[in-house]
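Morning, I've got a small favour to ask if you have a moment. I'm working through a protein record and want to make sense of it properly. The fold is given in discrete form, as structure tokens running alongside the sequence. Can you walk me through what the tokens say about the fold? Thanks so much in advance, here it is:
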Amino acid sequence: MAALAVQCGIAIENARIYEKQNRQLNYFKAVYEIGKTINCTRKLDQILNLILTRLTEVMNLKACTIRLIESTHGRLELKAAFGLSKSYLERGPLDDELATYYILKGEPVMIPDATVDLHTIYHKEAAAEGVGSVLAVPITVQDETIGMIRLLTSEVRYFSPADINFAMAVAEQGGIAIQNAINYQPEAVKQ
């Protein structure tokens, strides 16, 4: 019985290791695919939508949003969203959240329970929308934060270091493509 229990334990651990490696392999593939695709276009909407849909799919998320810092007032402006209701998206600005403070300093923020966490201010809205956890990562270009990606789950989830690294890699790749698309736009569209 003891030998069987040890073998079962080894099998379970091997399955966990396999699952973790498989998830990381999927993340590497997704980073490659996203990078390849977003670098083939200068259309901002296409870049944003690709990032949102692929992150949501690969990380098994409820939803995802991208906010960019508006050049005139320096405030975060919602540029793209996937999987959220209009009322949730219109709940108010995120500039005064504690999470945003850390994001603007270039740090990722994990919010295990968006309905009570001190890093967020829209607890009732998160509960009504069915948002469990949030991972917010900065979008940076040459060490300057230009926005953020928020990844939302329907259940309480503790994001792993691999999850955070994947989201940061996509945000960094996305930042370059986003900045290039913004720079490529005619002046009338930028304002």
The radius of gyration is 18 Å. Strands lie at 63-69, 76-82, 109-111, 134-141, 144-152. The CA atoms of residues 106 and 130 lie 27 Å apart. The mean pLDDT is 88.
